[in-house]
Amino acid sequence: MTRSHLTAAALAVALFAANAATADPAGGDGDVRQACAADFQKACPDAKPGNGALKACAKAHFMSFSGPCKSALKAMRARMQSQAPAAGAQ
User: CA geometry: angle at 17 spanning 38 and 81, to 5°?
Assistant: First the structure.
């Protein structure tokens, strides 16, 4: 697994974990929850949002996640990057 894959997975899962309690249909986080729920349950059934466990799980198991989950995580990362302010901008 390349470093960029790990970074993408870690970022997406961290965001997934942070938003797990709230649904944002327009934001697409529900897509990630739906696409990845079984993958996280299988890979790390005891991981809970908010303590870094989901991020660690994604780092360790990203390559074994299903295609739909990987795609949803990558799409979330792309959305986050497009919404982030430019570096150095104020």
Answer: 105
Q: Summarize pLDDT for 51-62 with one digit per residue, the tens.
A: 888 878 888 998
Alpha-carbon gap, residue 57 to 85, rounded angstroms: 28
Contacts of 72 (CB under 8 A, 6+ apart): 28, 31, 32, 34, 35, 36
- Please tell me the distance from the alpha carbon of residue 88 to that of residue 53, in angstroms, as a whole number: 31
Cβ(58)–Cβ(9) under 8 Å?
yes
Could you report how far apart the first and last alpha carbons of the chain are, in Å?
35
Distance in angstroms (rounded) separating the CA atoms of residues 57 and 63 = 11
Nearest CA-CA partner of 7 in 74, 72, 64, 67: 74
Report residue 37 as tokens: 């729920």
Q: How far is CA 64 from the centre of its chain?
A: 14
pTM of the complete model beyond 0.70: no
